[in-house]
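re: the backbone from monday

yeah here it is again, tokenized this time
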């Protein structure tokens, strides 16, 4: 994500090729991996921390993860984006390396570094974030993210999130998230966002997701036309 405005750029084919290539590198770097996971999705809008990354248009997404028995893992995730024409960025590729594991019967921890890359961009939009995720009983979590180059701005950013999910049945659950992004060098110091989603796992490995997003007025000032209230619908498969 960046402070720059967006415009439509094609990139789904390059995205799939890049994710596949990065996945092979990830699997090789992990070595004797004990577990492989993946996902693919089509969404009506790519929304990240409350703001659209695709200008409200559909996006194609895919991800792969390779993990060892000791908790170490490498992951790659990508999405098409619609950035300003002068950036020439059409795809986002997130490269992650970290550790996750159980702290007790109820608590689990995930610590990682995530590098956000914007393929074919003519400007330097890439940046890196350290992220920690603490989960309780698999259904409640708190996340913290820190970067000294948040959104490739050259400024410090700290992101905090609280989340929860409530299974209503074996196939249906509700998800909710509240987050605040503290950003140095911007008026008002940052912005807040919330989201509420419903997920229907109608047939393995497929699920439908409907998510309502909302941000505060500070986000609207920071990201004109990209923040505010919006609804995202997605079809996802996990394997």
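seq for it, each position gets an aa:
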């Amino acid at each position: 994500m960046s402070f720059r405005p967006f415009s439509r750029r094609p990139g789904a084919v390059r995205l799939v090729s890049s994710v596949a290539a990065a996945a092979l590198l990830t699997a090789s770097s992990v070595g004797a991996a004990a577990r492989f996971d993946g996902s693919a999705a089509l969404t009506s809008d790519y929304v990240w921390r409350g703001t659209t990354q695709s200008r409200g248009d559909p996006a194609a997404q895919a991800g792969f993860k390779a993990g060892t028995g000791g908790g170490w893992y490498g992951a790659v995730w990508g999405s098409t984006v619609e950035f300003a024409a002068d950036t020439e960025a059409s795809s986002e590729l997130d490269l992650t390396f970290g550790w996750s594991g159980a702290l007790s019967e109820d608590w689990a921890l995930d610590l990682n570094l995530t590098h956000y890359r914007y393929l074919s961009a003519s400007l330097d939009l890439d940046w890196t974030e350290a992220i920690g995720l603490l989960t309780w009983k698999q259904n409640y979590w708190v996340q913290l993210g820190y970067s000294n180059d948040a959104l490739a701005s050259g400024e410090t950013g700290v992101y905090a999130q609280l989340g929860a999910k409530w299974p209503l049945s074996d196939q249906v659950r509700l998800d909710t998230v509240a987050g605040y992004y503290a950003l140095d060098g911007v008026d008002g110091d940052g912005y807040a966002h919330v989201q509420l989603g419903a997920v229907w796992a109608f047939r393995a490995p497929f699920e439908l997701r409907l998510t309502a997003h909302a941000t505060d007025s500070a986000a609207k000032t920071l990201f004109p036309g990209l923040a505010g209230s919006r609804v995202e619908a997605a079809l996802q498969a996990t394997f």
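The chain has a mean pLDDT of 88. Residues 12-30 form the longest helix (19 residues).
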